[in-house]
């Protein structure tokens, strides 16, 4: 018997791709610090409990030129961000409030 309910209500992937050939990559645009902030804030808010929100590092998501990049599933919403305030807005508006942050969508 399968359960149609997703294991996590929302699954967030942060591209951490590092390219060594000089092309743009998320790792060179602050992805590590952003992922750490996102994960810590989700934990601080208690969103990481009971299958609610999971934050994972990801390899290349194929959109580094538009990055840095975050994708939220099951919605499949792609975001870029500049700083921790953008990350906080994604958390507060999308992960908590269920509203897409249109200004950061790519």
> Share of helix among residues?
25-40%
Please report the distance between the alpha carbons of the first and last residues: 37 Å
What characterizes the major β-sheet?
Answer: 4 strands, mixed
Please identify, by name, the CATH architecture. 3-Layer(aba) Sandwich
The CATH homologous superfamily is termed Glutaredoxin
- Strand tally is 4
User: What are the secondary-structure elements, in order, as H or E?
Assistant: EHEEEH
How is the CATH topology named? Glutaredoxin
Strand order of the largest sheet: 2-1-3-4
Provide the domain count. Answer: 1
Alpha-beta content class: alpha+beta
Average pLDDT, all residues:
93
- Per CATH, the class reads Alpha Beta
Low-confidence runs of at least 5 consecutive residues: none
The number of helical elements comes to 2
Percent of residues in beta strands: 15-25%
The Rg value, from CA coordinates, equals 14 Å
GO molecular function, one term: metal ion binding
Protein name: Ferredoxin
InterPro entries: Thioredoxin-like_sf
Cofactor: FMN
